[in-house]
C-alpha cells in the first residue's frame, strides 16, 4: 500500500515517539467551514503541545497521506471536491485520483497499514434507525471487528439506533469499554439509558486491555466510549425530538447512504442554533485528549 508519511510522522515512527491518528471526514463533512479548519488546527496543536505527533489521514489527488501539512489541512477543510471515502472505496479513490476525506473505516485501514495503533474520532457509525427496512449498517462496525486498534469516540452518533448498534458490536466481537462509565454515551449526551459495558478508570487500563488482546491474537479493536464533558453536553431530553425530526425529514426527502449522516448533522446544527456544533467540537477534542494519554502509554 503506497502511503505518504509526513516528515513528523516518519521521524516519530523511527524514534518510537507517540503518534495519534485523526480522521478527515469530521473536517470535510462533519463541520462547516471555517469551524472545521479551526477545530482541525486546534486538535493538532493539542497533540503537539503534549509531545504527541498528530497523524491526520486524507487522500489528495489519489495519494494517501498520513500526517498533513497546513496547506493540505486547509484544502481538505474548504474544498468542495473532497469526497467521503470509506474503506470499500479506497482502491477507486486512488486509481481515479480523488480528493478524499477518510471515514472511520478507511482511516483505520490506512492507519493499521502504517503501523499506527491508536485513533481518536468524534462518533462512530453504526446501525441506522429503520434498519429493518434499509439494512443501513456502517462499515465502521466491520472495521472495528477486523482491525486491531484502540479507537476513542463519544459513542455512536446519536442519529443511529444505539441499542442495535451496541448489540451488533457484541455480535461482531468488538471490545467496548467505557471511560469512567458503564453506560453507552449518546454522542451529544452523556446518557443513553443503555448500560452493561465494561468501565475502565485510566488510560493505562485501556493500554493494558489492548496489549492483552494483541497477545491473544484477537483481530478486533478496543473501542473506548468517552462521554462528552458535562458542561458541553446537550441532555437527551433536549436533543431527542430534534434528532427524530431530522430523521423524518431525511426519510421524506429520500436522503440515504453516505449523504445521510452529513445531512442529519447539518439539520441538527440548524435546529439547535449551532449548539450541537459546539458540542461536536468539544467531544472530539475530549477524545483527542484521552487519545494523547493512551498513545503515551502505548509508545
How do the strands and helices of this protein lay out in sequence?
Layout: E1 3-5, H1 7-15, E2 19-22, H2 25-28, H3 35-49, E3 53-60, E4 63-66, H4 70-78, E5 83-85, H5 90-95, E6 100-102, H6 104-113, E7 118-120, H7 131-134, H8 139-146, E8 150-153, H9 162-171, E9 175-179, E10 198-200, H10 203-215, E11 222-225, H11 236-253, H12 260-271, H13 275-298
Parallel strand pairs: 1-4, 2-3, 2-7, 5-6, 7-8, 8-11, 9-10, 9-11
Antiparallel strand pairs: 3-4, 3-6
Helix pairs in contact: 3-4, 3-13, 6-8, 10-13, 11-12
Based on the model shown, name its key terms.
single chain; 299 residues; alpha/beta; Indigoidine synthase fold; 2 domains; 11-stranded mixed beta sheet; 13 helices; 11 strands; 47% helix
In short:
The protein is α/β, with parallel strands linked by helices and 299 residues long. It is 47% helix and 15% strand. Strands 1, 2, 3, 4, 5, 6, 7, 8, 9, 10 and 11 form an 11-stranded mixed β-sheet that branches.
**What class, by secondary structure content?**
alpha/beta
Summed over residues and divided by their number, the pLDDT gives a mean of 96
What sequence of helices (H) and strands (E) makes up the elements?
Answer: EHEHHEEHEHEHEHHEHEEHEHHH
Number of distinct beta strands: 11
Largest sheet, in brief, is:
11 strands, mixed
Strand content: 5-15%
**Rough outline:** globular
Give me the Rg, rounded: 18 Å
